[in-house]
Design brief:
The chain has a single domain (8-232), classed as Alpha-Beta Barrel (TIM Barrel), CATH 3.20.20.190. It is 31% helix and 19% strand. The chain is α/β, with parallel strands linked by helices. The chain has helices at 24-32, 75-81, 98-101, 104-115, 128-133, 151-160, 170-173, 183-192, 221-232; strands at residues 8-12, 37-44, 50-52, 87-92, 121-125, 141-145, 165-169, 196-200, 215-218. It starts with 7 loop residues before the first strand and ends with a helix. The longest helix has 12 residues, at 104-115. Strands 1-2-4-5-6-7-8-9 form an 8-stranded parallel barrel, surrounded by 5 helices. This is GP-PDE domain-containing protein. Pfam families: GDPD.
Length: 236
């Protein structure tokens, strides 16, 4: 198992999405709040560096892959800045050009191989082909699924690919429609298949709904911490 100490909180792009996301300040801020895991988005530039950016374009509308990544944090900088006890979930954003040259995976391997010896790491992606290219690295791999992708398909796919985790959006976990198993049953099956279950973007007030998961990728770190504290405080 990747997460062995109960429900783990992972800071989404550091301290959450929005202004300042995927920056060293945001990542260090999440650590200062007590998080032991953070999530970052990584993609490559025209100069074959890996930088932190969620969207394929920069603030001025230029594609990241077409430029040098000026002003964006490099993955190496994250490794240098974060204490080694902090785990990093590297969400890899492959680009159109990977259909031709498959360059993102080997670039990532060079950096991750050494770093995995000094801190907890996990690689997640919406691109199963990228994950397959990383399978000989010895680092936990997780399949990300988008919004309302059916949870049954997601768990089966991740298990069939021999991955270590399935990362589900909250929209995939909604039960009650009669079209899928209850979330707790899905987690049970995932665990039986050897998968950790990660849920991304729950609101603080939704934490209890996903308490069966192994980890939550959250935007509102203070609010989620407060909610968890309330859940564990005995009623007076």
């Amino acid at each position: 198992m990747i997460f062995s100490e109960g429900l783990t909180l992972i800071g989404h792009r550091g301290g959450g999405t929005g202004e300042g996301e995927n920056t060293l300040e945001s990542l260090l801020g999440a650590v200062e709040l007590g998080l032991t895991w953070v999530e970052i988005d990584v993609q490559r530039t025209a100069e074959d560096t890996l930088v932190l950016r969620h969207d394929p374009v920069t603030a001025d509308g230029a594609f990241v892959i077409d430029g040098p990544g000026t002003g964006l944090v490099r993955l190496e900088e994250v490794f240098e800045a974060l204490p080694p006890h902090v785990g990093i979930d590297i969400d890899v954003k492959t680009v159109l050009e990977d259909a031709l040259d498959h360059r993102t995976a080997p670039l990532l391997k060079k950096l991750v191989a050494d770093e995995a010896m000094r801190r907890p790491l996990m690689i997640t992606s919406f691109d199963p082909a990228l994950l397959m290219r990383m399978s000989d690295l010895g680092v936990p791999l997780g399949l990300l699924t988008w919004l309302w992708f059916p949870i049954g398909h997601a768990v089966a796919a991740a298990a069939g690919l021999g991955l270590d985790a399935i990362a589900l959006h909250t929209g995939s976990c909604e039960a009650g429609s009669g079209k899928q198993r209850p979330f707790e049953r899905c987690v049970e099956v995932a665990h039986e298949a050897g998968l950790d279950v990660i849920v991304w973007c729950p609101k603080p007030e939704e934490v209890a709904l996903y308490s069966a998961a192994d980890a939550l990728v959250v935007d509102d770190v203070p609010g989620t911490l407060a909610q968890l504290a309330g859940l564990t405080t005995p009623a007076s």
